Amino acid sequence: MLKHIICSITSLRTISLSLFIICVCAIFSRCNQILSSDNDNQNSETASNASIKRTEKYNVFEFNPKEIRMGVSLRKPKKADFYMNSNFFNKKPIGLVVIKGRRSQSRVKGGGYFYVIDGLPKIQAKDCPKRTEYASQTVLWGIDNGQVNQDLFKEKHAKTKEFRSIIGTKEDGNFILIASNENSQVTIEEITNYALTLGMYEGILFDGGSSLDYKLSTDSDTEICQPISSLVKSIGDKHEPMVYIYGNFR
Fold it and tell me: Which terminus in the chain has less CB density within 10 A, N or C?
């Protein structure tokens, strides 16, 4: 009898802890829309050419790369019109990291790149010039010259549902970022195929899951999203992203 009572108490504690964690995640996830009255970019003249689109699963940000100064940072930028976490990591960033022309991490085989040359940001699967002003590498590319990476879709990790992001370029040169909102965990195939329907021609996937952290901003609208907050990550012994891509409208 006593054994059954102890088991029941243990089960109740487990259920209570699970409910507590769910509630904490719901309370402390940082995902919210900020309208023009609260937006510190409302006087920008070029941010008006950027757009934020919200769907059931994704937030979509599109902008002209010629109208924004972009770079790479080893910490989350405190003031930026745009930022997103980038490199995967394991004690240190995996893949190429270049900041102000200085390489802090070497490239690895495969994947894709965000980089800046002569002040102009670019995204490219599989290749990156040897000398850049800024660079950030991911081990995963999703779209190359309009063709999706079918081999990637077959990988076991690609079939799990996670918070994810894909950033790339359209044929007109515009940058487009597609990222999970706080309610949406998707497979790599789902987010990549959706990016293709929006006209993404070149696309790479950066670190997702608990690392997903981004801000999208125009002159009248801002979306800040961190589905798993820093507080929850610290409780669960999860690490913060080590590399960010950022941008400020000119």
Answer: N
